[in-house]
Design brief:
Layout lengths: L1 H9 L4 H11 L5 H30 L6 H4 L2 H10 L8 E4 H8 L5 E2 H13 L5 E6 L12 E2 L2 H8 L3 E4 L1 E4 L2 E4 L2 H12 L2 E3 L5 H4 L3 H10 E2 L2 E3 L2 E3 L12 H4 L41 H10 L1
Parallel strand pairs: 1-3, 1-8, 2-4, 3-5, 8-9
Antiparallel strand pairs: 6-7, 10-11
Protein backbone atom coordinates (compact mmCIF):
# COMPACT_ATOMS: atom_id res chain seq x y z
CA UNK A 1 0.00 0.00 0.00
CA UNK A 2 2.78 2.39 0.97
CA UNK A 3 4.79 1.58 -2.17
CA UNK A 4 1.82 2.36 -4.40
CA UNK A 5 1.19 5.54 -2.42
CA UNK A 6 4.81 6.71 -2.83
CA UNK A 7 4.83 5.86 -6.53
CA UNK A 8 1.66 7.86 -7.21
CA UNK A 9 2.94 10.79 -5.14
CA UNK A 10 6.10 10.91 -7.26
CA UNK A 11 3.90 11.16 -10.36
CA UNK A 12 2.33 14.32 -8.93
CA UNK A 13 -1.06 13.07 -7.73
CA UNK A 14 -2.57 14.39 -4.48
CA UNK A 15 -2.45 12.23 -1.37
CA UNK A 16 -6.19 12.27 -0.66
CA UNK A 17 -6.90 11.37 -4.29
CA UNK A 18 -4.51 8.37 -4.10
CA UNK A 19 -6.06 7.24 -0.81
CA UNK A 20 -9.54 7.37 -2.33
CA UNK A 21 -8.43 5.19 -5.26
CA UNK A 22 -6.66 2.64 -3.02
CA UNK A 23 -9.65 2.42 -0.70
CA UNK A 24 -11.88 1.86 -3.72
CA UNK A 25 -9.68 -0.76 -5.47
CA UNK A 26 -8.11 -2.29 -2.37
CA UNK A 27 -4.46 -2.56 -1.31
CA UNK A 28 -3.94 -5.63 -3.51
CA UNK A 29 -4.86 -3.80 -6.74
CA UNK A 30 -2.27 -3.73 -9.51
CA UNK A 31 -0.31 -0.50 -9.99
CA UNK A 32 -1.62 -0.19 -13.57
CA UNK A 33 -5.23 -0.30 -12.32
CA UNK A 34 -4.43 2.33 -9.69
CA UNK A 35 -2.86 4.64 -12.33
CA UNK A 36 -5.81 4.13 -14.71
CA UNK A 37 -8.26 5.10 -11.98
CA UNK A 38 -6.15 8.14 -11.05
CA UNK A 39 -6.11 9.29 -14.70
CA UNK A 40 -9.87 8.82 -14.96
CA UNK A 41 -10.49 10.80 -11.79
CA UNK A 42 -8.10 13.53 -12.97
CA UNK A 43 -9.94 13.90 -16.29
CA UNK A 44 -13.33 13.94 -14.54
CA UNK A 45 -12.31 16.63 -12.05
CA UNK A 46 -10.80 18.73 -14.88
CA UNK A 47 -14.00 18.61 -16.93
CA UNK A 48 -16.07 19.50 -13.85
CA UNK A 49 -13.76 22.46 -13.18
CA UNK A 50 -14.22 23.74 -16.73
CA UNK A 51 -18.02 23.46 -16.56
CA UNK A 52 -18.10 25.28 -13.21
CA UNK A 53 -15.87 28.01 -14.63
CA UNK A 54 -18.19 28.37 -17.63
CA UNK A 55 -21.24 28.60 -15.39
CA UNK A 56 -19.48 31.20 -13.25
CA UNK A 57 -18.58 33.37 -16.23
CA UNK A 58 -22.04 32.98 -17.72
CA UNK A 59 -23.58 34.40 -14.57
CA UNK A 60 -21.25 37.39 -14.82
CA UNK A 61 -22.47 38.32 -18.32
CA UNK A 62 -24.87 41.30 -17.97
CA UNK A 63 -28.45 40.73 -19.02
CA UNK A 64 -29.91 43.11 -21.59
CA UNK A 65 -28.24 44.90 -24.50
CA UNK A 66 -25.52 47.47 -23.99
CA UNK A 67 -25.52 49.72 -27.11
CA UNK A 68 -21.91 50.87 -26.88
CA UNK A 69 -20.62 47.26 -26.54
CA UNK A 70 -22.88 45.77 -29.19
CA UNK A 71 -22.30 48.50 -31.77
CA UNK A 72 -19.33 48.19 -34.06
CA UNK A 73 -16.26 50.33 -33.29
CA UNK A 74 -17.07 52.43 -36.34
CA UNK A 75 -20.55 53.31 -35.12
CA UNK A 76 -19.52 53.88 -31.51
CA UNK A 77 -16.78 56.24 -32.71
CA UNK A 78 -19.29 58.01 -34.91
CA UNK A 79 -21.76 58.50 -32.05
CA UNK A 80 -18.98 59.80 -29.83
CA UNK A 81 -17.58 62.27 -32.36
CA UNK A 82 -20.93 63.53 -33.71
CA UNK A 83 -21.85 64.78 -30.23
CA UNK A 84 -18.46 66.44 -29.82
CA UNK A 85 -18.71 70.08 -30.90
CA UNK A 86 -14.89 70.33 -30.95
CA UNK A 87 -14.92 68.29 -34.16
CA UNK A 88 -17.18 70.80 -35.96
CA UNK A 89 -15.54 73.43 -38.16
CA UNK A 90 -16.14 77.14 -37.53
CA UNK A 91 -18.85 78.66 -39.75
CA UNK A 92 -18.40 82.06 -41.42
CA UNK A 93 -21.60 83.33 -43.09
CA UNK A 94 -21.68 85.96 -45.82
CA UNK A 95 -24.59 87.91 -44.30
CA UNK A 96 -25.22 90.16 -47.30
CA UNK A 97 -25.28 87.23 -49.71
CA UNK A 98 -27.65 85.20 -47.53
CA UNK A 99 -29.98 88.13 -46.79
CA UNK A 100 -30.24 89.18 -50.46
CA UNK A 101 -30.82 85.58 -51.52
CA UNK A 102 -33.66 85.16 -49.04
CA UNK A 103 -35.06 88.52 -50.14
CA UNK A 104 -35.10 87.25 -53.75
CA UNK A 105 -32.55 89.93 -54.79
CA UNK A 106 -35.21 92.58 -54.20
CA UNK A 107 -34.46 93.41 -50.57
CA UNK A 108 -32.14 92.69 -47.64
CA UNK A 109 -34.00 90.06 -45.60
CA UNK A 110 -32.44 89.73 -42.14
CA UNK A 111 -34.72 86.75 -41.49
CA UNK A 112 -32.65 84.76 -44.01
CA UNK A 113 -29.56 85.28 -41.83
CA UNK A 114 -31.48 84.06 -38.78
CA UNK A 115 -32.65 80.94 -40.65
CA UNK A 116 -29.08 80.08 -41.68
CA UNK A 117 -27.74 80.62 -38.15
CA UNK A 118 -30.54 78.46 -36.67
CA UNK A 119 -29.73 75.64 -39.09
CA UNK A 120 -26.10 75.48 -37.95
CA UNK A 121 -27.05 75.84 -34.27
CA UNK A 122 -29.34 72.82 -34.62
CA UNK A 123 -26.40 70.88 -36.07
CA UNK A 124 -24.40 71.59 -32.91
CA UNK A 125 -22.13 74.37 -34.20
CA UNK A 126 -21.10 76.92 -31.60
CA UNK A 127 -18.47 78.91 -33.49
CA UNK A 128 -20.66 80.87 -35.95
CA UNK A 129 -19.78 84.32 -37.32
CA UNK A 130 -21.92 86.47 -39.63
CA UNK A 131 -20.40 89.48 -41.41
CA UNK A 132 -22.69 92.35 -42.46
CA UNK A 133 -21.64 95.89 -43.55
CA UNK A 134 -22.23 98.46 -40.81
CA UNK A 135 -24.33 100.69 -43.06
CA UNK A 136 -27.07 98.05 -42.95
CA UNK A 137 -27.86 99.39 -39.46
CA UNK A 138 -29.05 102.65 -41.04
CA UNK A 139 -32.64 103.44 -41.82
CA UNK A 140 -34.14 101.42 -44.67
CA UNK A 141 -34.44 103.33 -47.97
CA UNK A 142 -36.69 102.62 -50.98
CA UNK A 143 -33.69 101.85 -53.19
CA UNK A 144 -32.22 99.46 -50.54
CA UNK A 145 -35.09 98.01 -48.47
CA UNK A 146 -34.23 96.11 -45.28
CA UNK A 147 -36.74 93.86 -43.52
CA UNK A 148 -36.66 92.53 -39.92
CA UNK A 149 -33.75 94.83 -39.08
CA UNK A 150 -34.07 94.09 -35.34
CA UNK A 151 -32.61 90.62 -36.02
CA UNK A 152 -29.23 92.24 -36.72
CA UNK A 153 -29.18 93.85 -33.26
CA UNK A 154 -30.25 90.59 -31.64
CA UNK A 155 -27.50 88.54 -33.33
CA UNK A 156 -24.95 91.24 -32.48
CA UNK A 157 -25.86 90.96 -28.78
CA UNK A 158 -25.45 87.17 -29.04
CA UNK A 159 -21.92 87.79 -30.41
CA UNK A 160 -22.75 85.96 -33.65
CA UNK A 161 -23.03 88.93 -36.02
CA UNK A 162 -20.13 91.33 -36.69
CA UNK A 163 -20.54 94.62 -38.57
CA UNK A 164 -17.69 95.46 -40.96
CA UNK A 165 -16.57 99.10 -40.62
CA UNK A 166 -17.92 101.94 -42.70
CA UNK A 167 -17.90 105.74 -42.35
CA UNK A 168 -18.92 108.90 -44.13
CA UNK A 169 -16.37 111.29 -45.62
CA UNK A 170 -17.82 114.60 -46.88
CA UNK A 171 -21.24 113.06 -47.25
CA UNK A 172 -19.90 110.04 -49.12
CA UNK A 173 -20.05 106.57 -47.61
CA UNK A 174 -16.69 104.74 -47.35
CA UNK A 175 -17.12 101.00 -46.76
CA UNK A 176 -14.59 98.25 -46.14
CA UNK A 177 -14.66 95.18 -48.35
CA UNK A 178 -16.62 92.68 -46.23
CA UNK A 179 -15.76 89.72 -48.51
CA UNK A 180 -12.10 90.02 -47.48
CA UNK A 181 -13.13 89.81 -43.80
CA UNK A 182 -15.13 86.66 -44.55
CA UNK A 183 -12.41 84.80 -46.46
CA UNK A 184 -9.63 85.86 -44.09
CA UNK A 185 -11.44 84.72 -40.94
CA UNK A 186 -12.51 81.41 -42.51
CA UNK A 187 -8.96 80.76 -43.74
CA UNK A 188 -7.34 81.63 -40.39
CA UNK A 189 -9.82 79.53 -38.40
CA UNK A 190 -9.84 76.63 -40.91
CA UNK A 191 -13.59 76.98 -41.21
CA UNK A 192 -16.42 76.93 -43.77
CA UNK A 193 -17.62 79.86 -45.89
CA UNK A 194 -21.41 79.95 -46.37
CA UNK A 195 -22.16 81.91 -49.54
CA UNK A 196 -23.24 81.61 -53.16
CA UNK A 197 -20.44 83.98 -54.16
CA UNK A 198 -17.29 82.47 -55.72
CA UNK A 199 -15.00 85.36 -54.60
CA UNK A 200 -13.08 85.27 -57.89
CA UNK A 201 -11.32 88.57 -57.19
CA UNK A 202 -10.00 87.26 -53.84
CA UNK A 203 -8.98 83.95 -55.42
CA UNK A 204 -6.60 85.91 -57.63
CA UNK A 205 -5.09 87.75 -54.67
CA UNK A 206 -3.53 84.75 -52.92
CA UNK A 207 -3.02 81.21 -54.25
CA UNK A 208 -3.71 79.70 -50.81
CA UNK A 209 -7.05 81.55 -50.71
CA UNK A 210 -7.95 80.16 -54.13
CA UNK A 211 -7.48 76.55 -52.99
CA UNK A 212 -9.26 77.23 -49.72
CA UNK A 213 -12.31 78.81 -51.38
CA UNK A 214 -12.56 75.90 -53.83
CA UNK A 215 -12.53 73.33 -51.01
CA UNK A 216 -14.45 75.12 -48.22
CA UNK A 217 -17.23 77.05 -49.92
CA UNK A 218 -20.70 75.85 -48.89
CA UNK A 219 -23.43 77.01 -51.26
CA UNK A 220 -27.12 76.87 -50.37
CA UNK A 221 -30.69 77.45 -51.49
CA UNK A 222 -33.79 78.88 -49.84
CA UNK A 223 -37.09 77.09 -50.31
CA UNK A 224 -39.46 79.70 -48.87
CA UNK A 225 -38.20 79.90 -45.27
CA UNK A 226 -36.16 76.70 -45.35
CA UNK A 227 -32.35 76.97 -45.51
CA UNK A 228 -31.02 74.06 -47.62
CA UNK A 229 -27.31 73.40 -48.21
CA UNK A 230 -26.48 70.54 -50.63
CA UNK A 231 -25.79 67.01 -49.39
CA UNK A 232 -22.72 66.87 -51.68
CA UNK A 233 -21.01 70.30 -51.35
CA UNK A 234 -18.00 69.31 -53.50
CA UNK A 235 -19.86 67.26 -56.08
CA UNK A 236 -21.06 63.71 -56.44
CA UNK A 237 -17.69 62.12 -55.66
CA UNK A 238 -16.78 64.50 -52.83
CA UNK A 239 -17.46 64.16 -49.09
CA UNK A 240 -20.95 64.16 -47.66
CA UNK A 241 -22.28 67.31 -45.97
CA UNK A 242 -21.81 65.73 -42.52
CA UNK A 243 -18.12 65.08 -43.16
CA UNK A 244 -17.66 68.41 -44.97
CA UNK A 245 -18.69 70.29 -41.81
CA UNK A 246 -16.33 68.30 -39.58
CA UNK A 247 -12.58 68.32 -39.00
CA UNK A 248 -12.42 64.51 -38.88
CA UNK A 249 -14.86 62.43 -40.93
CA UNK A 250 -17.26 60.44 -38.79
CA UNK A 251 -19.60 58.83 -41.31
CA UNK A 252 -17.76 56.50 -43.73
CA UNK A 253 -18.36 57.43 -47.35
CA UNK A 254 -18.79 53.75 -48.28
CA UNK A 255 -22.25 53.85 -46.67
CA UNK A 256 -23.46 55.08 -50.03
CA UNK A 257 -25.50 52.57 -51.97
CA UNK A 258 -23.19 50.17 -53.87
CA UNK A 259 -23.62 49.84 -57.62
CA UNK A 260 -25.78 46.81 -58.50
CA UNK A 261 -23.59 46.09 -61.55
CA UNK A 262 -20.34 45.99 -59.55
CA UNK A 263 -17.22 45.65 -61.68
CA UNK A 264 -19.34 45.13 -64.80
CA UNK A 265 -20.63 48.72 -64.62
CA UNK A 266 -19.83 50.66 -67.82
CA UNK A 267 -20.89 54.13 -66.61
CA UNK A 268 -17.44 55.03 -65.23
CA UNK A 269 -17.32 58.36 -63.39
CA UNK A 270 -20.91 59.08 -64.47
CA UNK A 271 -22.25 56.26 -62.26
CA UNK A 272 -24.11 57.70 -59.26
CA UNK A 273 -23.58 54.58 -57.12
CA UNK A 274 -20.60 53.69 -54.92
CA UNK A 275 -17.77 51.56 -56.38
CA UNK A 276 -15.38 50.27 -53.69
CA UNK A 277 -13.01 48.90 -56.33
CA UNK A 278 -12.60 52.41 -57.79
CA UNK A 279 -11.82 54.14 -54.50
CA UNK A 280 -8.20 54.91 -55.38
CA UNK A 281 -8.48 54.75 -59.15
CA UNK A 282 -9.52 57.28 -61.77
CA UNK A 283 -13.18 56.58 -62.42
CA UNK A 284 -13.13 56.20 -66.17
CA UNK A 285 -15.63 54.32 -68.25
CA UNK A 286 -14.77 51.00 -69.88
CA UNK A 287 -14.63 52.68 -73.31
CA UNK A 288 -12.08 55.21 -72.03
CA UNK A 289 -9.99 52.45 -70.47
CA UNK A 290 -9.98 50.56 -73.79
CA UNK A 291 -8.93 53.67 -75.69
CA UNK A 292 -6.05 54.31 -73.28
CA UNK A 293 -4.88 50.70 -73.39
CA UNK A 294 -5.06 50.78 -77.20
CA UNK A 295 -2.86 53.89 -77.29
CA UNK A 296 -0.37 52.23 -74.96
Amino acid sequence: YQAKMDFALKLGYAGDQIQAVLNKLGADALINDVLAELVRLGNKSESEGQSSANSTTSTLVPRGPCPKEIASPELSLEDEVVDNSDNLRPIVIDGSNVAMSHGNKEGFSCRGIQLAVDWFLEKGHKDITVFVPAWRKEQSRPDAPITDQEILRKLEKEKILVFTPSRRVQGRRVVCYDDRFIVKLAFDSDGIIVSNDNYRDLQNEKPEWKKFIEERLLMYSFVNDKFMPPDDPLGRHGPSLENFLRKRPVIPEHKKQPCPYGKKCTYGHKCKYYHPERANQPQRSVADELRISAKL
